[in-house]
Design brief:
CATH class of chain A: Mainly Alpha
Largest sheet of chain A: 3 strands, antiparallel
Radius of gyration of chain A: 23 Å
Structural class of chain B: mainly beta
Number of strands of chain A: 3
Radius of gyration of chain B: 22 Å
Helix content of chain A: over 70%
Largest interface: A-B, 44 and 29 residues
CATH topology of chain A: Triger factor/SurA peptide-binding fold
Helix content of chain B: 10-25%
Shape of chain B: elongated
Number of strands of chain B: 11
Oligomer: heterodimer
Largest sheet of chain B: 7 strands, antiparallel
Distance between the termini of chain A: 60 Å
Distance between the termini of chain B: 47 Å
Number of domains of chain A: 1
Chain lengths: ~260, ~180
Amino acid sequence: MNSTKWNKYLISLAILTLIGTAFFVVKINPSFAIKSEFDQIIRSAAHFIAKNPEQLDHSVKAVEDFYNVKGDAIAWVNDLPISKEEFDFRRGLQKISGIPDVDQYIFNILIEEKIVLDYAINNEIVPTDDQLKKFINYERDPNQTGEEYQEAVKAFCAAAGMTEDEYYDSYEKYNAFRLLLYKNAYDYAVKEGRENGELTLDPNDDIILRQDKEVQYWHDIQKELKGNIDIKVNDKYKDIMLVVDKTKLYILSAY
Amino acid sequence: MRIKRNIILSLIICLFCIIVIVPNALAGNLYASGDYSYISYNLNLGVKTFTYKVGYNAVHTVSAGQDIVNYHDFITYKTITIHPPDIGNGNASLNELVLVNASNNTPYDYLYATNFSNGSHNGWLLPGGAYIFKMLKSDNSLAGPSSMAYRVKVGTSFVLNSSWVPNNWLESCHTGSF
């Protein structure tokens, strides 16, 4: 047998061994596949952020000074602008998931986020700096979030080429603001609903039923706000064909 | 004659007590609990942590040579509510209750979520602000011959929206052996 044939046999054997080992590892230890899936997505997201730092900056600015975005706005929701850079940032990240119609999907999510921001502004429940600081401190504390979370953040920062301080002052600030925004809005809506009698909870009802009623009440408010939205799309970006879908809340599947 | 009848009656009552009360005297409460924490990534919200707790209790009795476990109460909940309830809270559910051999974990009898209904027999004491995923009860029995020691394995799962990676975890906790 000549050496070329031997080489082919050896390469085939090596490939089969690799495939067999990979199958064995994933089959025997599913957590290996889960960890790998997690590592892969945070690496992809971090690389996208590393390549588009200006989009992240604009997005952070959009939650710091929401009426004055940098650059173009693609649309305005009740006078709140959706900046082109924030749209591109969220669209670029979402493309990693490979979902279809990513433009419509992200446009509707951003609209829903701005609707809740508008609701928070009107009711004076926008997350405060102090609330943001507490949330970030909670996340940074290994006793609260655990070592695994801290390691994941370190891995994200390494792949994104940012320090942990930069991560918490930019990307995580952007995420935390919107989470807190939804928490404040939810708590306020439920409290108001109970006080004004629109949300009636029977103390004899099962507690889970009461919880579900609260969540449903909050969803109904969001649907109503989206149904009555005043939106203007920038003529410059009309070719993207952005359409507000008032039939559902995209946030429910996105969050 | 009357005294003899009373003695016999007393003996019957004593025998009845031995048959009925003694096995019940052997009855005991079973407990299991779990406390789990995960991290996951969402393209809209970044890296986040999720925690949930499991509580289980039931009554164990021995009757007619059988170990019987019933009056099951099951709960999954979270105490740290930094997220609003409709965001990333997912759902923590009961997958199965399994009566297993305490020495080698061989399954002996099963109950599934379909054997449970909403509610509880004894109620739960939870910290304020707890968000409950599931609170279930069942009067169905797990049973096995009293010739071996058992424990109850409580299998649960935690599932998030598919927008989170990863989004599905399985866990189990056990009662002590009996």
